[in-house]
Amino acid sequence: xxxxxxxxxxxxxxxxxxxxxxxxxxxxxxxxxxxxxxxxxxxxxxxxxxxxxxxxxxxxxxxxxxxxxxxxxxxxxxxxxxxxxxxxxxxxxxxxxxxxxxxxxxxxxxxxxxxxxxxxxxxxxxxxxxxxxxxxxxxxxxxxxxxxxxxxxxxxxxxxxxxxxxxxxxxxxxxxxxxxxxxxxxxxxxxxxxxxxxxxxxxxxxxxxxxxxxxxxxxxxxxxxxxxxxxxxxxxxxxxxxxxxxxxxxxxxxxxxxxxxxxxxxxxxxxxxxxxxxxxxxxxxxxxxxxxxxxxxxxxxxxxxxxxxxxxxxxxxxxxxxxxxxxxxxxxxxxxxxxxxxxxxxxxxxxxxxxxxxxxxxxxxxxxxxxxxxxxxxxxxxxxxxxxxxxxxxxxxxxxxxxxxxxxxxxxxxxxxxxxxxxxxxxxxxxxxxxxxxxxxxxxxxxxxxxxxxxxxxxxxxxxxxxx
Length: 468
Hints:
Shape: globular
Distance between the termini: 60 Å
Keywords: Amino-acid transport, Membrane, Transmembrane, Transmembrane helix, Transport
Strand order of the largest sheet: 1-2
Helix content: 55-70%
InterPro entries: AA_transpt_TM (IPR013057)
CATH architecture: Up-down Bundle
Strand content: under 5%
CATH topology: Amino acid/polyamine transporter I
Radius of gyration: 22 Å
Structural class: mainly alpha
Order of helices and strands: HHEEHHHHHHHHHEEHHH
Protein name: Amino acid transporter transmembrane domain-containing protein
Main location: membrane
Subcellular location: Membrane
CATH class: Mainly Alpha
């Protein structure tokens, strides 16, 4: 049977004011889509990569950084073709989000599983961003304290106040009505991610040039102060952190849905995906490898916020401030699809409710009571969970390990097989299923390591008393 490589018909021309689906004409380009992708990908993940290499060594660590990037890029390319699906009446129909694409191509049961995996990712990432932002805020205060009183001082501070500050800002930003209003946040966040990544690389180079030559390892690093079992768990956790670093497939369709109809959305999205993942992978490799040279096998979990660098203190402060600004925008990029899902479901359930549907205007600002209360409640609950489980590396690893396989590998491959009508047990079918199986095994090991890390962290910490 002849395989069809371009599955979805992409329409080129759109009316002046409305697109072919009756919605307001979309105005996104490859530049805005690339900015959304970089904002979603380069975030908390870059901060832990030096620690990951310290657990994995040169060969295995570099190999994983490249392989996860290639897998993510390949499966995202497959996904871009599924934004439009054949329709018996209109010719094609748009899949506005990941879940709709799964339901259209794979059916209802897969749809439910996808919903669980996708919203677990979005919720988990928003909590992870809250944790990381509070740590970076605390690091700014500690940096100035170290500069004033010396590096031998503890300068410790509770993170609760910083978590509350981040939450208050998100209470305001969360009232942006939809994903299409986030372009300015994504552009700012993208700039910030480049700034703090560049500062991290610069500080690493300065540390290396200053004569820092800590021990590194070609293979898995030996850990004399750690049992073999403990070292194995750390390796699994590091794999989960690397998997987390490249995840953005859960919001790919929301990003693609911002693009203009001409040129075809799938072609533009492929360009944006290639640019976004290439830029992210380049920064990850540079930050991770340079950081590993600078810190060696004893690298900190977060090399900008756990004081791998002390001086110049003002540059460390700028880097951490950029992290906070970046995550303020990235939080909205990842959580808006979840907001949209809940609000769309509520409108279908209660179409006559004024509380759910009525929009009020105060000047140029429009608000809805349900949106105001629901989104504010979500931000508060996410902040409370971040206060309860403020464990950077283990938390990121858990999110990455439990969502990488279903969202980045399994569903894209299954939808590709269905739409391309790949014959069962053909060579390509076998290769794709083998890729999926290998990724499942890797994700399972990483999940085990991250869960174990969380359990150990919970046992040795006090509830709501996170200290930087």
